[in-house]
Structures are given as structure tokens and as C-alpha cells.
């Protein structure tokens, strides 16, 4: 076995081991989605070229602490992966890290009041503004801004560069899942299968999955009534 084959085996083994740690009594998936914790899912990670985001995000992977906090959990993962200076973390002093308890503050309250968040979740626009409040570059793209080809190109390029991250806002039922709007980070793109890896933060509900770019784009290209009727979409974070 040469060193390249050994590395591919190591990546596949690491993907399966990681996915096993986040396994739960999840809901069944439609055939169109490929679980990361399967041989096929692990192989997609091995074959993918745009996977720089996978490793730092996998270290920081968290489960949303309630059903409204998918955006909060996604930002916690990305901000920690980027090593952004975190606020004080009660119980961990003198160490600091972003958690779902310390991400929200007086600044974020002016963007999205906590009570509104708990009642109806977070929009794509609010996601971008909260990220910017922490001093990171966050470019909001609504699905109808550019189209599928642009999303595929821009998102895969972002996932391939150091410090590049993508957070998506999509409608679950378009992917055959249950059921409403959701937010999670992307971790990789495989050009051969034209699939993106979604590190789903509702780990009690669904595992990380590979979704076809066309399906994911369709799920983002849906109207969010809580965001003035704008389409859902994605946020490019980092470089």
C-alpha cells in the first residue's frame, strides 16, 4: 500500500469514527441523501477535494440545545473553528470558547431578540448580521441572487480554502426530511457526485448527510416568510 492509499484509508476510517460519535436514534433518510456514517458516505469524503472545512468543524461539532438554536449552534461551530476570540465562558475560566450560552449578547439582541429567536428561529439575514457582529467576514447570498451554478462554484471554492466556511439555510422537506426551515454548516464538496456534506446540528434528528447540489439549492431556493418573503440561501464566512 502506498502513502496515498494509506491516507485515503485513514480519512475514511476517521469519517466513520467521527460519524459514529454523533449517531443517535435518528429519523429515516430518503434514498437521495447519503449518510456520512456509511461506507459510501466515508468514500465521498475520501474522494472530495473541497474538504478543508471538515476537519476544524468536526472538532467543534455540537448539537443545537433546543429546536430553535440551529443557527446559534452553527455559528458556535464556525466561530470556534476560526479561533475567533470568544467571550468569557462561565465554568471554563480562564479558558474561553464559544457556546450556545454565551454567543448571544446585547449586540445580538438588537439584531434578533432572544424571545423572537426562541419563538421562530433565525433568518438568513440575521445569521449574517450576528456573524458580522463578531468581526468576521460574512457574505449573505439568497438562493435567487445568482443561481445553482454560482452556488456550486462559490461554495465549493470556499470549502477548499483555509479558514473558509459555508452555512446554509434550507427547507428540510425539499430534501425529503421533516420538515421546516433549518440552518447547518457545510463541511465538504465532492465534484464526482456533485454533493455537499451537511453537518446537521440537530444530531438527535438526522446524521451528517451528503446532499446533491441540485437538491440543496432547491431547498435553499424557498421563501422564508419570517425574512420579508426573501429566499433562503447561504452565508460565506471567512476569507
Tally the beta strands: 9
Terminal-residue CA separation: 37 Å
The CATH topology assignment is Cathepsin B, Chain A
Count structural domains.
Answer: 1
DSSP strand content: 15-25%
| Parts with pLDDT < 50 across at least 5 consecutive residues | none
Describe the structure.
It is a single chain. The chain is of the alpha+beta class. The protein has a single domain (3-237), classed as Phytochelatin synthase, N-terminal domain (Cathepsin B, Chain A). It is built from 10 helices and 9 strands. The chain has a 7-stranded antiparallel β-sheet, sandwiched between helices. A two-stranded antiparallel ribbon has the order 7-8. The mean pLDDT is 92.
Topology of helices and strands:
Elements: H1 3-21, E1 34-35, H2 39-47, H3 54-59, H4 70-81, H5 106-111, H6 114-120, H7 124-133, E2 138-142, H8 143-146, H9 148-160, E3 165-171, E4 181-190, E5 195-198, E6 209-212, H10 213-220, E7 223-224, E8 230-231, E9 233-237
Antiparallel strand pairs: 1-6, 2-9, 3-4, 3-9, 4-5, 5-6, 7-8
